[in-house]
Amino acid sequence: VIRVLVWEGEKLRIRSDENKLLLVRGIGKGIKKIKALEAIPKNGSIQINTVSDRQRIIYLPNKSILNISSRDPRGIWLKNRRYRGKLSIYLINNRFEVINSIRLEEYLASVVGSEMPKTWPIEALKAQAVAARTYALNQLKNSPRYDIRSTESSQVYLGLESETKRTSQAVKSTRSLVILN
């Protein structure tokens, strides 16, 4: 599993796709099932607006961590992108950090499609998969909350929209291959 910083900002909106509910830990006890969540920093705490059968406003302490997952294969919507795996939300200095925890091979299928044209020859996609895997593995445990960023400063990772059958095939056919010195 790799932890990818996918978004930083002051206002946050996460939603499910259609009738599939998000599973949220960190709002009260147990798992809450909701359709959408909006969060903003408010006087040193987090104001959460949830949408499920009824809308609720919840205030959480500043150091709270929300963990969001879904059983929907279409992923979780964060702004205008969808992500597999789990999203963890942290409030740091009145700004949110959203970290996507995802299996490495699923992450790589998106990176390959984000870093280069998906229509390039399969051998080029395979080379990108090996290079991306090598870089990602060298970044593990980069910081306490995340391993890698989703931008050009690390590797571009755009979530589910960047995955195709060809990028997944390139990653699968190079599984466990890395570049060594």
How far is the N terminus from the C terminus? 24 Å
Helical proportion, percent range: 10-25%
Spatial arrangement of strands, main beta sheet: 4-3-8-11-12-1-13
Poorly predicted ranges: none
Percentage of β-strand residues: 35-45%
Q: Could you give the count of β-strands?
A: 13
Order of helices and strands: EEEEEEEEEEEEHHEH
Give the class from helix and strand content and strand pairing: alpha+beta
Count of helix runs: 3
**C-alpha geometry:** elongated
State Rg. 17 Å
Sheet bearing the most strands, described? 7 strands, mixed
Assembly of the depicted chains: single chain
Averaging pLDDT over every residue, what do you get? Answer: 86
Structure description:
Helices cover 22% and strands 38% of the residues. It has three helices and 13 strands; from the N terminus they run ββββββββββββααβα. It has helices spanning 104-115, 122-139, 165-173; strands spanning 2-9, 12-15, 22-25, 31-34, 36-42, 45-51, 55-61, 65-69, 76-78, 81-83, 86-92, 95-102, 148-149. The chain has a seven-stranded mixed β-sheet. Strand 6 (45-51) and strand 7 (55-61) form a beta hairpin. Helix 1 (104-115) crosses helix 3 (165-173) and helix 2 (122-139) crosses helix 3 (165-173). It is elongated, with a radius of gyration of 17 Å. The chain starts with a strand and ends in an 8-residue tail after the last helix. The mean pLDDT is 86.
